[in-house]
Design brief:
This protein has about 180 residues and is mainly beta. It contains 1 helix and 14 strands, in the order αββββββββββββββ.
């Protein structure tokens, strides 16, 4: 019996150093660093599993911005954003950009009211094709200040003064904002 105990002890001493002292959690490989030189003021960024997006205001005096999509460092596509670009959000199917536009601007054939107004434009995430545009304008002003993914769509947050018009929906503010 002593012989078996000594053999078992020797076997345990040989095996125990190979066992970790505590269980190890699965490890995720670190993300690769990607540096993309972009000219203009970056107003919003988002990413999906295969693409990175940047809303870029090329020149504030031109009131023109762009949504640019990248695969690594190569530009995959770009699309126009009216006005001054703001926050963006992305799903695997859509990239949605917010912007500030001025009164009298034309978006998809409709005149914008309010100074300023908020414009929301959705692009197909893989091709850059414009899917839809929505204007949130007001008798005073409207700003889109945040955006978040919600399932396959997005939620847009913001502030406004006066009476807000979002498509066929009208809402009045209680006290200016």
């Amino acid at each position: 019996m002593r012989k078996h105990a000594a053999l078992l002890g020797a076997l345990l001493l040989a095996v125990l150093p190979a066992c970790p002292s505590h269980p190890r959690a699965p490890r995720v490989a670190p993300a690769a660093d990607v540096t993309v030189p972009i000219e203009g003021a970056i107003r919003g960024v988002a990413a999906t599993s295969g693409l990175q997006f940047a809303a870029v205001e090329a020149n504030p005096s031109d009131h023109a911005s762009a949504l640019r999509a990248f695969r690594g460092v190569a530009e995959a596509w770009h699309g126009d954003i009216a006005g001054s670009a703001g926050p963006i959000a992305a799903t695997d199917k859509l990239v949605v950009a917010t912007s500030v536009v001025g009164a009298g601007s034309q978006l998809d054939g409709a005149a914008v009211r309010g100074e300023p107004a908020a414009a929301i434009r959705a692009f197909d995430a893989t091709s850059g094709a414009v899917k839809w545009t929505r204007v949130f304008d007001s008798t005073e002003w409207a700003l889109a200040t945040s955006i978040a993914v919600a399932g396959d769509g997005v939620i847009v947050g913001g502030t406004f003064g006066g009476t807000l018009r979002a498509g066929k929906h009208v809402v009045s503010s209680a006290g200016g904002s």
